[in-house]
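Q: Here's a chain of 450 amino acids. Please give me its 3D structure as tokens.
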Amino acid sequence: MQLTNQQVEALAPDKAAVARAKKLGEPRNWSGLGSSERAIWGECKGSSTYQVRVDLSDLASKCSCPSRQLPCKHTLGLLFLAAQRPKELAAGAEPEWVADWITRRQAAAQAKATKKAQAREGKAPVDAAAQAKRVEKREEKIADGLDQLDRWLSDLVRVGLASVEQSSPGIFEEEARRLVDAQASGLAGWVRRLSTIPLSGSDWPARLLAQLGRIALLTRAYRGLERLDPALQLDVRQQIGWSMGQDEVLAHGDRVRDRWQVIAQEVIDDERLRTQRTWLMGQATGQAALILQFAPGPKARFPELMLLGAEIEAELAFYPGAARQRALLVGREGAPGSVGALAGGQAIAALLDQTSQALARQPWIERFGAVLAQVTPARGDDGVLHLIDAAGDHLPVTTGEPYLLLALSGGAPIDVGGEWDGERFHPFITATGGRFHLLQPALQAPGGDD
């Protein structure tokens, strides 16, 4: 994979680390630079000489410096050097301190996989009676929570939506906490997200009412769960807050092996839990897949490192349900590559048709990963940036880099990968001239030091 500056910046824990690392990304600061199929390495010269190595399979790193910041400035400096001057890292035999580290990492990964498999096989049998009792008790709490939610929704509509102008976001947070206590965390998330709507635009009352309707529909669906299609039952339960374990996904989910492109990614920060939402697009299948990862607190890293603009050979297991969207990464093979041309491109009409069919099957889908083929960015009469395809169809765009998108297009059609939320398309990547360009790079959790 040929790294870019934007991808390296996305690995940094903060902007200050980026500034320090860029100063180290010059050949004069390094000796013993090299690369192999497995790793890149070098010795950074400063107050001391620090040995830096990066595993190319997942960009995990190790530096001999005492810094607690991960990745450290020396690691980022080496990655900036690899991105800007890859020829400085000539192919050669791995030094012993690199080869030993890679070998130990591989052995540890194999031991971890073996231990996990043995634990799965040796898992104690489930006490069916005790489990049924716990489920029954939780169902009672959820039922009480749904009754309270119905009263809250009715009062909100009866009093009028204008009342939330003064009471938001507290009114939503209070109800969300009650739902958490009722063990309906999924519903709590739906209610908590309502707080972003009031006063967010001239049409906010209509959008708020639409979301209240989706929540009401979800409560009705859960109460009539036995009348739903089995696949939809699974989705409704997950929307309420019932989780599906990884073992269950691996056992019952559809497996798809492909070369996957990372086309969109966003990190949502929270005081207690950070969430990373990553969209993959299969080159052969044209299938979009959503990977959700979680990390406790601002310093923790996500389990799997997936960079925007990367391609990975991997097998995914899709969560069972009516919406074949969220997936679990089963395993990946080899080092990641770089996107040259975006896969899975489609016209705007095809995207809207696809999303409408998906919503007909499962009405609570909030986002869709997609690649729009041959669209031209242009400002509309309303001053908002739009993407316009060959048929003249267009979608409004939300982007922190509108001028970059316009400049990369130069007035010509381009392929754009991103996320569609039903109102606006959020572009994250485009590819021109055999190279990708990031449109909304965001800082991620540290890549790790193993």
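Q: Can you summarize the key feature?
A: Residues 246-338 form one domain.
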